[in-house]
Amino acid sequence: MGKAIAKFHGTLQTEEVEVNLADNMILLNQKRVPAKTLYWEPPVSGTIYGTLLNFKGAIEKMGGALTEPPYKAAPKAPVLYIKPANTVSGHESPIPIPAGETFLEMGASLGVVIGRRATRVTESEALDYVMGYTVVNDVSIPHESVFRPAVKYKARDGFCPIGPWVILGDEVENPDALSIRVYINNELKQDNTTANLVRSVSKLIADVSEFMTLDEGDILLVGVPENAPLAKNGDRVRIEISNVGMLENVIVHEEELMSGGDGQ
């Protein structure tokens, strides 16, 4: 059993629980309970910062386009964007697909939860500032450009499921060696690893905190691997990150949710 922070429906605060990642069970009130039987809320409340082009494959996929206008060169610093509060949802919450869209990109990412204020921290000390790790689906409408802020495509309601929990940092021996897998309707669609990051977790924290402060509770997404799989209405999406957890959500038409459907 590993220690984690979770938030359940109807509670005001997060609480520490013990989780068994092997069978997706948690120890709650001295009883082993299947995670799928509980109602989860997002276990985080800070600002969520996404990172573009932080997987080697994503850089390679851009190819010569990075040396042409408007880029002209590969990025020399982290390329960040914000997933605002309206995007955040929890484990088993529906992901709304807007009218007129056929597919959404499932952006599997490791979320690094900051444990204390980090300003200009060194790479060697960066992990000391980590409270824990969580699974994030950085959902977006498929689009090409990474030059202009893609607010319309990445910041829609429900476009950032997080959870089910935050596994405490001490439970993860090496955040740069975690497998990331995406299943759609139980079929494996993506298999990658944080070993393929351009900037390691420590390097990313150090580079970001060099020009801006990360506060306690903030979440830094390490990036989305290349070739993010597509999902359509009715698809069940599961993202698994080794040693961290498993996040599941169903794609549901936005109109159905607005009319009172729950996507279950």
TrEMBL record:
<comment type="similarity">
    <text>Belongs to the FAH family.</text>
</comment>
<dbReference type="InterPro" id="IPR011234">
    <property type="entry name" value="Fumarylacetoacetase-like_C"/>
</dbReference>
<keyword id="KW-0413">Isomerase</keyword>
<dbReference type="InterPro" id="IPR036663">
    <property type="entry name" value="Fumarylacetoacetase_C_sf"/>
</dbReference>
<dbReference type="GO" id="GO:0018800">
    <property type="term" value="F:5-oxopent-3-ene-1,2,5-tricarboxylate decarboxylase activity"/>
</dbReference>
<dbReference type="Pfam" id="PF01557">
    <property type="entry name" value="FAA_hydrolase"/>
</dbReference>
<dbReference type="InterPro" id="IPR012686">
    <property type="entry name" value="HPA_isomer/decarb_N"/>
</dbReference>
<dbReference type="GO" id="GO:0044281">
    <property type="term" value="P:small molecule metabolic process"/>
</dbReference>
<dbReference type="InterPro" id="IPR051121">
    <property type="entry name" value="FAH"/>
</dbReference>
<dbReference type="GO" id="GO:0046872">
    <property type="term" value="F:metal ion binding"/>
</dbReference>
<feature type="domain" description="Fumarylacetoacetase-like C-terminal">
    <location>
        <begin position="47"/>
        <end position="252"/>
    </location>
</feature>
<protein>
    <submittedName>
        <fullName>4-hydroxyphenylacetate isomerase</fullName>
    </submittedName>
</protein>
<dbReference type="GO" id="GO:0008704">
    <property type="term" value="F:5-carboxymethyl-2-hydroxymuconate delta-isomerase activity"/>
</dbReference>
<keyword id="KW-0479">Metal-binding</keyword>
